[in-house]
What does this fold into?
Amino acid sequence: MARPKSTLEVIPSARRLIRSLRDVGYDFRHAVADLIDNSIAAGASSIAIDMKFDGKDSFLRIADNGAGMNGTTITEAMRFGTERDYEADELGKFGLGLKTASLSQCSRLTVGSRTDRNAKRIEARQWDLAHVEKSNRWEIIDVPADERPDALVEPLRNATGTVILWELMDRVLGYKIPWGDRARTGFLRLADELDQHLGMVFHRFLTGEARRRKKLRITLNGTTVEAWDPFARDEKATIQLPSKQLEIHGDDGPGLVAYTPCILPAQERFSSLKAFNRYAGPGKWNYQQGFYIYRADRMIQSGGWSYMRTSDEHTKLARVALDFWPDLDSAFDLNVAKARVNLPADLKTQLQPHVEQLVKQARKVYSPPSADPPAPAPRGTPAPSPSGGDSGRGSSGHGDGRQSPQPSGGGAPAGPRLAHIGNAINNAASEAGESAALKRIRKALKSQHPETATEIGW
It folds into this structure.
């Protein structure tokens, strides 16, 4: 009979590890979206997000009308690597999201919850990084009733549900003067970006299309978040192509990925210029082409071709929905922030011919053949430039109105001669989940070095 092994429990240093867990890859938008996942899992039909700017006392609050949690459940929910089972279609996965998403943005996370309409009992627990730094222990605080901030308690006074409160938002208000105009402007900008992001990521839930879910309402500072459908299905000229089911293998066996392609209309065929600009998306047309990857109806990736091809001005109208369920998480290499996936090799192989056919059709929609050949120029008329002499939509034009590239030596402007570099940077930022950072970089480059921005097509 084998002797039992001698073991020693080694508990990580709370002070050191919790600092590291703040840097697992969340940005502000993805951190908030991860918390929305929890509200959906709790059966919420209404989620209210409030962002209040008040210098160092600024806070973010997420209040839902879900089932709520009792004391035992809320304590377990605050554990890193919580021990719970997830349903097959549930949006959670790692048992880390509530903590890692929140502490990536703030240094004090408080969660309050109420389960019984007939009883006013509210449970509240808190991670305070200052306390962890001092004690070096994995301790949460059971917040007594007389120390709970009004921002936490107010939504629960007359309703059941859960409230998440971020305070001491050091990662959000990273300014030397946190109460200054720059900090305020940055805070408001984040609210605008969050509104767009949530409308995109949860658009199927907001419209009631998500399977086995009730219709969801999200408000941000009292304003309803509007769903953004990347496939413009309400436009008559949108071409919706047949869906296909592709089989791949994960750790739990085979599973199906739904491939649903579409081609959006060219600008002149949209119902209005306003509609055309709206469906351009947060990153605009070139950036938003490609794959929209959904896990259990929740968007994980918004655009980009996942290294299967580069983005091209002439294929910017092509968009594809790829749907998979959590049983294929291992195959897609889903990251903790649920902001990035990698397409499995066998899926790429199956997708390749479908994508090639799609982009071929998208090019035709972008640049339809001319119905009549051009009339011959009168004798003595100068020949047109190689670009066609027109800055409008054409085989080498740009949908954002920029001039097409011109050969050196001609009389026309040079245009974005290195546009492929700009596209490559856009794609890389998309894959890394850093589109918000890139947006700020583009703005700064246009302001400080406009010639360089023009060179690379920005």
Notes: Residues 397-458 form one domain. The radius of gyration is 25 Å.
